[in-house]
Design a protein that fits this description.
single chain, 215 residues, alpha+beta, Glutathione S-transferase Yfyf (Class Pi), Chain A, domain 2, 2 domains, binds glutathione
Length: 215
């Protein structure tokens, strides 16, 4: 049995989508980060960094119970455990891991800062610099994806993989949560939009995106 401690944010959605795609048996536990549940001793015991998502697998390596933090590490763990969503071909596998790391290092932190200043900071920050800086960076990253997705159905190889799962919830969030369609001129990234639609059409994605949304 697995336990997912999460909330329906992009980092959390990655893992619930992967669990649904893999048809794994898991119990979701909603962590309300708006009321500080990530700072309770019980949660810190699972993730010393106080962030969702966390996956607990009672049937981990060597039969041990393992608690895994960091969504990229969780995606790799699930892919390796099941032999799915990550190609066994060494070259495709290497490429997939690079795009997962690209999400972890760039898309997540930069889109997250963009959303913070564009949508949530409000009157706490009236200086235009942060929104300008993160708008420029978010658009640059969207263009990286746009170019990558030229004549490609999925981000890596011929198959939907953990690279797609890592990135599409963050792209979806730009319109769904941040309402930044105009600010980021999302219509100017047609390859990205078409790929996002392909991801969102998947039944497992539709289910996974709503897990741990009950706050
Ligand atoms: N690099 C981490 C980032 C996780 C993260 O930032 N989670 C956010 C929600 S999307 C969170 O738990 N925030 C709570 C807080 O910052 O107090 C991962 O990918 O797992």
């Amino acid at each position: 049995m697995m336990h997912l401690y999460s909330l329906a944010t992009p980092n959390g959605q990655k893992i619930s989508v992967a669990l649904e795609e893999l048809a794994l048996d898991y119990t979701p536990h909603t962590i309300n980060i708006l009321t500080g549940e990530q700072f309770t001793p019980a949660f810190i015991a699972l993730n010393p960094n106080s962030k969702i998502p966390v996956l607990v697998d009672e049937d981990g390596p060597k039969g041990e119970t393992v608690s895994i933090m960091e969504s990229g590490a969780i995606l790799l763990y699930l892919a390796e455990k099941t032999g799915q969503l990550l190609s066994a071909d060494p070259l495709v596998r290497l490429e997939t891991i690079q795009w997962v790391f690209f999400q972890m290092a760039s898309i997540g932190p930069m889109f997250g800062q963009f959303g913070h200043f564009y949508k949530y900071a409000g009157e706490k920050c009236t200086h235009p610099y942060p929104v300008e800086r993160y708008t420029t960076e978010a658009k640059r990253l969207l263009q990286v994806l746009e170019t990558r997705l030229d004549n490609r159905h999925w981000l890596v190889g011929e198959q939907y993989s953990i690279a797609d799962i890592a990135i599409f919830p963050w792209v979806d969030c730009l319109s769904r949560f941040y309402k930044a369609e105009e600010q980021l001129a999302l219509h100017t990234y047609p390859n990205v939009q078409a790929w996002l639609e392909r991801c969102l059409e998947r039944p497992a994605v539709q289910k996974g995106m709503t897990v741990c949304s009950d706050i």
